[in-house]
Every structure is written in C-alpha cells, then in structure tokens.
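Sanity check

After download, print the first record. It should look like this:
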Amino acid sequence: MNEQAVQIIARGPRMVAETAAAAIEAHPLLEASTFSIIEEDETAGRWRIDAFPVSSEEADGLRELLTGYGELSTITKTLADADWLAMALSGLPPVRAGRFFVFGVHDRGRAPVNAVKLRIEAGAAFGTGHHGTTVGCLFAYDALLKARQFDKVLDVGTGTGVLAIAAARTGSRVTVGTDIDRVSVRIARENARVNRAPTRFAHANGLSHRLVAGSAPYDLVFANILARPLAHLAQAITVNLKPGGSVILSGLLRSQARFVLAAYRSKGLRLRRRINRDAWTTLVLER
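Expected structure tokens:
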C-alpha cells in the first residue's frame, strides 16, 4: 500500500481470539490476510493476533472485524520504512523441532552438534520455524523419518523454503518448492544456497508447473498454506502423490481441520496423525 505499513494487534481471551482468527479466515475479503495468533501470557490467559495488511482496504476490514469483538483490545501500529519483518525476526530465538534446529545468522553459534541445522533468513517470506504451523510440519516430518526415507518431496507454498530444505538435508534426492509469491521464491533459493541444499523452486499457482509435473509423483507433499486453498488442492495433491505416499498439511486453525480433512478423505487419503500447537493443527495423511 502507498501509505506506511501498519501492524494491527488484538489481545484478549483465547476463545475470543480464536473465534476472531477463524472469522478472518472465513471472510471473503480477508481470507488471504497475513496474520498470526499466539499465546502471549499463559498466566493471564491472554492471546494475541498480529495482522499485517498490504492495503488500506485490508487494514480497514481487519480493524472493523477485530473491534467487533468487545473482549479484544485492538490497536494499530505504524511500522518504519525498513525491512521491519527481518528486524523483528532478528530477535527471535532459534527453534528445535525434533532433529531440526532452525536459526538465523545471529544464532549460528548455538546449534547443537547432533541437530540437522537449518539456517533460515526470512526477509519478506513466511516460515522461520517459529510459527505453530511450521513447527508442526517439522515435528510431523521428523516422526515420519523414523520409519522411512522420502526420495521425492514437494513443498507447496514454500515461503522461506524451510520444509523443502529440511527434506534435502535429510536425504531426499529430489526436492521441489513452489510459491505464488515471487519474493518468497527468491528468498527460498537464497536459503537453499546458504544451506547447500540442492532444492529447486518455482513461482507457481497450483501444481501444473513443469518443474512440479516433471518430478511427479512424490513420496511426500508438504502444504503449509491456508484452509481453503488446502481443500481446493486436494485432488491435485493426491494425483501427484505416489500410492503409500504421505501428505503433511498445515496452515489451518483447529476449527478448520474437519473441513480440510473431509476434502482429502474424499480422495482416498487416511489420517495418520494430528499435531496441535497453539491454535493451529497439522494433519499427516497417507494415500
């Protein structure tokens, strides 16, 4: 948006915050909004929504929706003209998820010796490992690796590339990532280079890109996006998955899990595991 970037923050009880988050997801004009929901104060039972609108219209819509919940305290902060996301992430601690240790350059000396080290610089892309959806995917993948290896892996909505890079670093021969955002694809490629991961990325909407089709079918598909796109892609993901292959889905609130799961069950996939973290759910399915 032409005016300065803003951050909209809403604080309140968990149930109210989760209901508001679900309302954002369900809103036809706001469902693609970038936001997170976390537990800010366990003792006080206070949860927090952080939203980052990309237009004045989106900002107005988010404010109108959030202020409609009387138990939420909503404020708007103006962000400086800088790479505010990277600045904020520079103060985040590293994340351990099973065998994986996700860190930024500021924590490169803190990685455990026995961990699979993933240095991820976010820039303007989503997926540092701190969000409940990304952590859930890493935990799910770590559990699957205890039983088998995955020769070919696809990461839909790759963001920073962290999941595709994790697959490449743990023995997958072919790893492909896609994103609808060109900036994310550029950042993912940079992260793959830093991690010496032979991962290929494509700017694509859907799974028809030649890079995706050329490596199909896959042993494992990650899709950490939003609930509605997850359901919409159920057929395409199933077609690109080998029999016996696995799917790790995230980016959905707990309240949305049934809706997404129904879409994949209708294609013959079976639920193998569900991981809940904060207000988010990760689903592990098998064809």
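If your output differs, re-run the checksum step. Summary of this record's structure: Residues 126-286 form a domain with the Rossmann fold fold (CATH 3.40.50.150).
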